[in-house]
Amino acid sequence: MLDVLDLSALELALCLAMMAIAALVQGTVGFGFAIVSVPVLSLVNPALAPVPQLLVQVPLSFGMFLRERRHADWGGVWWTTLGRLPGTLVGVGLLTFATPAALDGFIGLLVLAAVIVLALGRPVVRTRATELGAGVLSGAGAFVSAIGGPPIALLYKDADGATVRATLALIFAVGVVLTVGARALAGRITGLDLGLGALSVPMVLLGFWASRFLTARVEGRPLRVAILGISALAALGLLGRAVAT
Fold first, then answer.
1. Which residue of 24, 79, 140, 225 is most buried, as measured by CB atoms within 10 A?
2. What is the pLDDT of residues 114-161, one digit of tens each?
3. DSSP 3-state helix, strand, coil percentages of the chain (rounded to 5)?
């Protein structure tokens, strides 16, 4: 089994740099950490993703929530988190019985379809049903590929930036704890994952700190475009990985 010492200096440097960049994106927009880091690091070395990204999102998500907690939509947090519970179980089942390529393709198509619908101007009303549904999709996607942000971010694409960041941060904080716990119980966290996670925390915190200088610049239409763009990037990345596998 690999450990951190088995990685080359270049692989480790790229991993730490991508963690900082991904934290900057998530701290600014509200999500996107795994979308930015997982596809790139998977190409560098499959052992670099996706579990280390899940682990470091625990302190990142709690830090984001504490920074803008006054703006959180608590009702949305409750119902999407409730949806993530069965969603995580769905992820466990999918990872057990389906191939990684099939899972990437399925999740990628779902996210891309949602992006297209919303880009065409079709509004998504936040109701208990849509929040539960987004939570289920998010929980399954997070467990399978560490990419659970798009379903919930798309639900909040018309909200103000502070609400998006605070709400998604709290949802992710709770959801990531559930996902990490489920992976630990399933024996899907390695020593390499823990080592990379620990080494990456300072870089993640650095990226999060730097995001404070960008949040005011990403509001209104730029925020909506960023949410749609990052979600589309996630979908295309998953589809590309499914084809390449």
1. 140
2. 888 888 877 778 999 999 999 999 888 888 877 888 899 899 988 899
3. 85, 0, 15
Which of 199, 204, 110, 100 lies closest to 143, judged by CA? Answer: 100
At 53, list the tokens: 């990204």
| Separation between Cα atoms, residue 228 and residue 167, nearest integer Å | 17
Domain span at 209: 4-244
Report the C-alpha gap between 191 and 3 in whole angstroms: 6
Q: How far apart are CA 169 and CA 164, in angstroms?
A: 8
Q: How far apart are CA 154 and CA 120, in angstroms?
A: 13
| The model's pTM | 0.86
Using CA atoms, how far apart are residues 99 and 104, in angstroms rounded to an integer? 9
DSSP state of 49: S
Structure letter (DSSP) for residue 57? H
CB 145 within 8 A of CB 37: no
Q: Quote the number of domains for the chain.
A: 1
CA distance 190 to 187: 8
Pairwise CA distance, residues 213 & 220, whole Å: 17
Which candidate, 196, 198, 110, 180, places its Cα nearest to that of 142? 180
Specify the amino acid at residue 243.
V
Q: What is the pLDDT of residue 241?
A: 79
